[in-house]
Model the fold of this input.
Amino acid sequence: MSMALLEVDDVVVRFGGVTAVNRASFTADRGVITGLIGPNGAGKTTCFNVITGLQKPTKGRVRYRDRDVTSWPVHRRARHGVGRTFQRLEAFGSLSVRDNVRVAHEIHGGPLTWLGGRRGVLGVDVLLDRVGIAEYADERADSIPTGTARLLELARCLASDPQLLLLDEPSSGLDETETGAFGALLVDLAAEGCSILMVEHDMDLVMSVCHDIHVLDFGEIIASGAPADIRTDAGVQRAYLGYAEGDGDTTTMQAVAEEVSPA
Amino acid sequence: MGSLFAYVLLGLFTGAAYAIMASGLVLTYTTTRVFNIAHGAFGMFLSFVFWDFTQRQGIPTVLSLILVLGVVAPAIGWFIQRFVTRGLGEGPVSVALVVTVGLLVGLIGLAQYLWPPEPRALLPFWPDTSWNIGGTYVTAHQLVTLICAVAVAFGLYLLLGRTRIGTAMRASVDNPELLKLFGGKPDRVAALSWAIGMSLAALGGILLAPVVLLDYYGLTLLVINAYAAAMIGRLKSLPMTFAGAMVLGILESLAVAYLPKDGFLNSFRAVIPALFLFAIVVLMPQAQLRIGQVKGIVTAPVPTMRSSIGAGAGLLLVALLLVNVVAPNQVLLIGVAATYAMVMLSLVLLTGYGGHVSLAQFTFAGVGALAYAKLDEPNLLGLLVSALIAAAVGALVALPVLRLTGLYLALSTMAFAVLMDKVIFNADFAFKFNGTLAAERLSILGLRIGSDTSYVWFMVLAFVLLSLGLLVLRRGALGRLLIAMRDSPSACGTLGLDMRWFRVGLFALSAGIAGLAGGLFAGLRGTVGAADFLYFQSLLVLLLAVVFGATSVTGALLGGVALMLLPEFQAASPSMAGLLFAVIGFGAVLLGRDPNGIANHLFRVGRWLRERIAPGLGDRLGERLQGLLPRGGTAADGSVDVPLVDVPGSPARPEHGASDTIVIEKVR
Done:
């Protein structure tokens, strides 16, 4: 058994003449948080779509728990523990926040939970409390702020008890305090054994919680490694800023963080 | 060999006309994402305009052709795009479908009104000219058709490949927002493609009118041929669409040649396009889930269980009063209204909750009626089995489209409705051609519900029970799942839900409800025939369900009453018959964007009235009711339901009394 829970192997995705992902290979290990970063349009969300099965790769394989899942349909991957949130929100807008999570619980638990009544609701409320949005439980999901909706998507995803959690820009829309609490929650989840792969623009968050980071630029992986290595990688700096430290300027990734993070 | 060649050649000419029509459909669909079900209806309407110009006004043929193809059709296309279908492409598929079905029905009504039924013929071009090619006669009209098809293909190739606006058209297929950013004008592109599409519909209609006959329905149904041809190119590729049209034309021609001239198989000739369509749909690859759905659909409030039961009891009381008060023939009409209302309930489940559209819902009622009559078991078990058979047939229709999206499901149901209408219902094992089957009213535990009044009241009871069942389902886990699937299929998929089977189940359940209504309807009538279940009726059922509110039980009730009244009004003033279709069709075009319909506005009025006039009255009433009912407020479990205020039954009935003189007499 290899260390990696997820292996993306030489994946290519082409839309017409545009190559969105070009021979990308990376892994996400068990029980840790892995970051997938890169400038806008680098192909991060497309990678997520390939991993979850929403997008068929033009070439390449996806392996999960040492099994080739490339041809698996979306729901089958989910049943085996691949969960995700969406960058462009996909909350169930006309249901309440609580019912959003309840649906996830019911999908995951199968028909037996459909008759569960209040016992199901209890677990749901625990989850809402854990991500910190319990006060919104009775509101319609299309009426809550973006940051809250992202947390709702996380809670909904957790209700299906995932082993691999794919988070697509989870912290955008959160303020500084909320982001701090969110980072702590991610660390807790990882400690409980949930592996996380996260696309994120907030470099402070990425650098503080991630064990490994992969950098994607124009559909290609240009760097992989621990946060410290990525911070000083010349190629990464060029991708973000157009120039690197050695090029005669002293800007560091700290500046990158300031540039990219919305706060 | 000679005859095979002749039939293939003949098929090529028909195929050429299909190709012209289908290319127009593909053009409008790819550039604006609105599938125009009324494409054939526009072809029909414009063929009538062409007939009017040439035969009635006496304008020379060539000038008429130029006027219709160059002025009238593009103007209509521009108008429709500008004022009717704009923005529909980004919305839910169900809304676009309802609006274009509305156009279809409206156009048929308008055509009937403007050109009342009488024998008309659109002559072929140069009817007396023909040539002998290899032992086969080729008429000038056929040659013109072929030349037109080649010209259309070449013209579209030049337009899309060699001009600026053509490039913009291709770009708008991929991303209209991006096109706007780069200085393109998606609105102009859309208007142009609708103008061209409409001209192509007209040309196809005019070329086919001598073959299909100048008829409201025949030409309208050509949309199925066009759709079948376009499916080969997956509604995208024009060259494949042309190829598909040719294959379809040849298949039809060969069917004419080689299928037996009488008997069951003979009737298959009319439905070759529908069969062809099913064959292609089965071979289509799995569709991918789309991300970025439309969010936050406002829906009519779900009433609390308490108010639902109260409303149901109220409706039963009103019905009891009505069946004992109105004239005997009007008692039957109430039964008809209950039938329609039950069929519309099946659409509340499918369309209102599930977001899918069926254009065959009354056909499923026909399946239920057929099964009930054939089983000849006039009891609850027989009724249940009939509903199960209808549900199984519904599952069979949904199965081929298992891997595809809602649009394909809806279009397949239309092909299915036509198939049943033209072939199966008329077959010897079913109602027989022009025949009817007898059906007995059912008995419960040996007690036969024989009289009109008690049977009709029983039907209203069935409606109430179905409604309550539906509301229980909506409030439970299944209801949540349905709404979740409608709001975001991709999220459901990534949470582990296999939506394909769920959709088949949903479709089967909905067909089963319609089948149950059909079984009860058969008992009500005593005799049922194929003529009771025409495909067109399914379109009316859908439109009225949406106009009156496809998201609430009340909407189904109101819609059912309205659909029952429609033929009464039409019989009262035959000259207005077409106009009423036009009103319904174009009304649906106006109201179709809001599936909550009139019922939801009534709810708002009811809430407003209660807040203004009698605050607290509802609470007091509620307290009274609490004592009567075993278990009250199930709404407290945290769902966001708003209590329903008014009794759904009461606003519907006065219409009935108002339109007829009430004759109080002793009821049997």
Q: What stands out?
A: The mean pLDDT of chain A is 87. The two ends of chain A are 41 Å apart (CA to CA).
